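hey m, so remember when u said the tokens were messed up on ur end? i reran from scratch. heres the input so u can diff it against urs
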Amino acid sequence: MKTENATPTDTVGGTGNGPPAPPDRHHDRARRADRADLVAAAAGVLLVTAAVVVGHVIQNRDGSLRAQWPPLLASWDPHLGPGTPAALTMAVLVVAYGPPLAARLPWRGLLAAAWAGSTAWVFSMALIDGWHRGVAKRLTTKHEYLRVIDRFEDIPATLRDFTNHIVIGEPGNWPAHVAGHPPGA
């Protein structure tokens, strides 16, 4: 028996006769996945916002964080430079081609593409300050390994003793970058 409101897609076979078509489960799963992604992104934004707010409250109250831009040991200094076009190009390329590549590439290819993209992004951001100030000089600041590399003469002893130098108040403490990562990272 035909119903007047049935359309060819309303029934199995598309004739308008017969049982209704099964629900599109793939579409439902995709909508749930999109919703889960949005919830995860919102949770991340809320977590970072909470860290910033709590960090500013603590820093303003007693200055114990010694951070101008909590939760990061950083300062806010947006500016333009020689690497700006490369950084903007990388951002546009990742937004435009990242999702389709992630869906299409096998995991090894995706791993290589993610490494290449992140390396290009880091260098383009560093090059905003130019090669000398943005890359070469950054590696020799008091916060990097190159300033303390001479302390690694006896590797086994350094590894055994590594955690004793993490805390800022300890004598011979490691620079922030060294203390915040595993040895050699």
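this time it looks ok to me. The first helix runs from residue 25 to 62. if urs says something different then somethings off w ur setup not the seq
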